[in-house]
Amino acid sequence: MRLVTLYTPWHSITAHFGVAIPVTASILVIIALIAKLCGREDFARRLTYPIRVFLLLSMISLVLACAGALIDFPASAFASSPLFSFKTTFAIITFFVYAGMYYTVTLKDEEIWNTKLCLAYLIVLAVVGLFTVSTLGAVGGYLGKGHTVLEFVLRAFGLIS
Amino acid sequence: MKDELKRMLGSWGTYLAVIPFIVLLIYGAVAVFSAVKGAVANSVGSWLLSKFLVFVVSAVVLVGISALITGFER
What is the CATH number of the domain that holds A111? Predict the structure, then answer.
């Protein structure tokens, strides 16, 4: 059962980029960490630039997804629906999670793999980002289709009964 | 810390993503504010305030920690 009707397909198009690109960025960070832990620091260093590009693209794709949401949904729904309110909050947090990752990688560049604090911060943000992006997708799926595989997460936040 | 902030402000991410995101949020807040009617209109102020708080706290904490620890681990 569809809970909301979209005016245009813009959010459907941009939201999938807004999930796929940040998830790819997070997975690249995790792959680079595993490579470093396995003694392949050269491989982790080579992944620094792709990670940085993907983090920049993540932020841009999230902006486009938010713009798509503003075009597609009735503006009043953002304040009246708890699901929309939750989605707005999580979208803001997700954006700054990826902004934090982008700035950390930009400032440290390849040296990030030789640091402790910065690397730990990057990994924590990558995992948090994976969770927040997945939850955003789950709320979108629930709004569009009336069900999602992550319903237990939405239930844990008290969004559905 | 000053150097970190300068490099942050001058990076591609600030111009291509952070500034457009802030502009979009301001536009979104104005659009929601002008669209709500009836009973919801009474609570839109608290809705705006809560979103503004989320914005400020997540921006300052997440990006601030990034600047702090990269400066600390120089």
Answer: 1.20.120
